[in-house]
Design goal:
The structure holds two protein chains of two kinds. By secondary structure, chain A is mainly alpha-helical. Helix content of chain A is 45%, strand content 3%. In chain A, strand 1 and strand 2 form a beta hairpin. Chain A is elongated, with a radius of gyration of 32 Å. Chain A starts with a helix and ends with a helix. Chain B is α+β, with helices and mostly antiparallel strands. Chain B has two domains: 49 residues, no CATH class; 206 residues, Alpha-Beta Plaits (2-Layer Sandwich), CATH 3.30.70.20. Chain B is built from eleven helices and eleven strands. In chain B, a hairpin with a 4-residue loop joins strand 2 and strand 3. The radius of gyration of chain B is 19 Å and the shape is globular. The chains are: A mainly alpha, B alpha+beta. Chains A and B meet through helix 2 and helix 6 of A and helix 4, helix 6, strand 2, strand 4 and strand 5 of B.
């Protein structure tokens, strides 16, 4: 059988094609690829598993309900009711964390408190592009027009950041005294 | 094939992806972080999220936006977006009487907008928040050579960071400029509509942080969904660049004609 060698070679080549396909496919294509479509199905779960940083609109209540009952009630009835706590402070997960054993939430870091006028200016500095109905002021001119001296933390001396309206009398004068 | 699509219900989804064990572990977190009915269900049964039961839509009301940048800051923190890159950003349009449009977006409005002194007569000015449009027929998924970009059954476009080779074709292909190459991970990155939040019944960080409800999330498969209702019935809702036929799922209400 002088041709045995050639037959074996042919068989080898024929076998090599499917084997290399299997090997390369195994290496190149991840396990869950193609389950739902042309992508890795596990990727969806990985996205869902990403830790949440910000809370929802109720996430401060559970703890601060007791300590800051007035503050919360005050905010809920004022003009800043729609402004989320986390916009002015910081994301809740930087401040609290579930305890590793009990799962109960515990404070881990001090919450950020920003008193700078720059915070207010994000939303209230006068800009042509803002809707006209939105309350806005030229910060520096506004403070001077209220007979106060401008400084970094001046806004919160007159306005309560949790309920900022000063349109009622009485409240107005109270603010002015503090700011001078 | 058809069968497989519809069968992709809770059971097979969870089986194949190994279950949503995280939600159980994070039980303590969900009590603070979630409030809606859906999240109540998920709390009781963490495997309750079924992606065949959702079809998300996003709505921006440009008349309401005050350009404060809260959404940009929240997105940046929620998704660890690197500096000077944006998954969402806000543009300011100032249109003069002679029809010229001036557009700016300083650092994506991460620090809001400075007042500008214009040397022309302003006819109108407004803000336009931008983000990934989560298009139904999207070029970014089509051009991906490795199957890293894909469309989920609940209607979002995601990028598998482990799969992405950072070639940047999708960044080029996106007509809305919504993608960027992450400077450290060297992979494509973009808005996920906070998939980790919406699958727990929470709102995306940008929607959540908006103080004037200019940004809204809807769900076409939810009965009586208000946002889906507005999109279906309003005559002043449109999409960006409709001529490209990408069928965006991000809609704009009261959009001025200067924006494309």
């Amino acid at each position: 059988m002088e041709h045995t060698k050639h037959i074996w070679r042919a068989v080898l080549i024929i076998l090599l094609v499917p084997i290399s396909y299997v090997v390369i496919h195994h290496i190149a294509v991840p396990e869950s690829f193609g389950v739902y479509g042309h992508y890795r199905a596990d990727s969806v779960k990985e996205f869902m598993d990403t830790p949440v940083i910000h809370g929802d609109r109720e996430s401060c209540q559970s703890c601060h309900e007791k300590q800051n009952k007035e503050l919360l009630a005050n905010k809920a009835k004022g003009k800043h009711a729609t402004v989320p706590c986390e916009n002015c402070h910081d994301a809740v997960s930087f401040h609290v964390k579930p305890d590793s054993k009990t799962g109960e939430l515990v404070k881990i870091e001090k919450m950020v408190i920003v008193r700078s006028y720059r915070l207010c200016a994000y939303c209230h500095e006068y800009l042509e592009a803002r809707p006209n109905a939105f309350p806005q002021v030229k910060c520096k001119e506004h403070v001077i027009s209220q007979d106060a001296e401008f400084s970094e933390e001046v806004c919160v001396k007159c306005h309560d950041p949790h309920n900022p309206s000063l349109k009622e009398e009485g409240k107005k004068d109270e603010g002015k005294k503090d700011a001078k | 094939m058809q069968n497989r699509e519809t069968e992709m219900s809770r059971r097979s989804f969870l089986g194949k992806t190994g279950g949503l064990a995280v939600l159980v572990v994070a039980g303590g977190v969900t009590t603070v972080f979630a409030d809606s009915k859906q999240s109540e269900q998920i709390k009781k049964n963490p495997q309750a999220y079924d992606w065949s039961q959702h079809d998300y839509v996003y709505l921006v009301d440009t008349d309401k936006c005050i350009g404060c940048g809260s959404c940009v800051r929240a997105c940046q923190k929620e998704n660890h977006v690197p500096p000077h890159r944006f998954r969402t950003w806000v543009e300011r349009y100032v249109v003069s009487h002679d029809g010229h449009t001036h557009i700016d977006s300083p650092d994506g409005a991460r620090n809001g907008f400075p007042p500008v002194v214009s040397d022309y007569n302003v006819a109108k000015a407004f803000f336009v928040p931008k983000l990934c449009n989560h298009c139904t027929h999207t070029p970014c998924v089509q051009v991906c050579p490795v199957g890293a970009s894909y469309r989920t059954k609940d209607g979002l476009i995601l990028v598998d960071e482990k799969r992405c080779i950072g070639c940047g074709y999708c960044v080029q292909a996106c007509p809305y400029g919504s993608r960027f190459i992450h400077p450290e991970l060297h992979v494509a990155s973009k808005c996920t509509l906070c998939y980790h939040r919406i699958t727990k019944g929470m709102l995306p960080a940008c929607v959540q942080s908006c103080p004037v409800q200019a940004r809204m999330l809807g769900d076409r498969k939810k009965n009586g969904d208000k946002v889906a209702e507005i999109i279906a019935t309003s005559k002043v809702v449109r999409v960006l660049k409709p001529e490209l036929l990408t069928e965006p799922n991000c809609y704009y209400k009261n959009l001025s004609k200067e924006v494309y």
